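[job 4471] stage=fold_predict status=RUNNING
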Amino acid sequence: TDSEDLLRYFLDAKRIEGRSEKTVERYRYLLTRLAEETRVPFRKMTVYHIRNYYTKERERGISSSTLEGYRSVYSSFFGWLSREGLISQNPMVNLTAIKQPKVVRKPYSAVELAKIEEAAKNPRDRALIAFLASPGCRVSEACSVNRDDINFQEQRLTVTGKGDKQRIVYLDDVTMMLLRRYLDQRTDDNPALFIGKGCRRLEPGGVRRALKQIGAAADVDNVHPHRFRRTRATSLIDKGMPIQEVATILGHDKLDTTLRYVFIDERNVAEAFRRYA
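[job 4471] inference complete, writing structure tokens
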């Protein structure tokens, strides 16, 4: 159909731009679902069709943050169609960003980190926690690393992040020690840095399950991979690292993204005010 052709053209363009296949598939899923639910061809879709779809989704219990994610995808799609001259009017022009409640996502405290580290009972889990905490890698990045990727002498490695973008991350002394201990006790020939059952490469789902179990044993709530990344960003900012450098370490293109990761402790704000005022 015409709508299928338009979607294919758009997805091809995203691939050429270097978007990951995971991102492309997300575009495909959300846009296909929009077409199926509204039963309106993309060329004839108006702002009223999309608003009506939003209303139905909200009635289903979909959160504002998820709906804002929908809006971002739709804006990208219809904006591209408009620039390419494939539609006469962009239905997203008058759909503004969806207001979301501000949620404070706190990093781990020093006590929580100590409890988590203490609850990790095997060399792999201790090395995994340190690896997530030290360079602030995404869980997908940690799972894709191979043993040979690590330069033990210089304590660094190159990871591949979103959009197949590569960056160098650095590891501290404790993480290097724990990685060596973990690798020294392995007898398999799997190149992956972290492995799970059957000596297969550890997947993100496996990491989340392991951390959930460790969190329960440590009596720490909300233990998940991304919180280590948020904790590292906050720690570096608290120690005075410029936010531009923190963004580079995390692999962020925009400083706004990095700012969303950082928890600003009001005590630090008060102290800074007294120092500079």
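[job 4471] summary: The beta strands are 150-151, 156-160, 166-170.
[job 4471] exit 0
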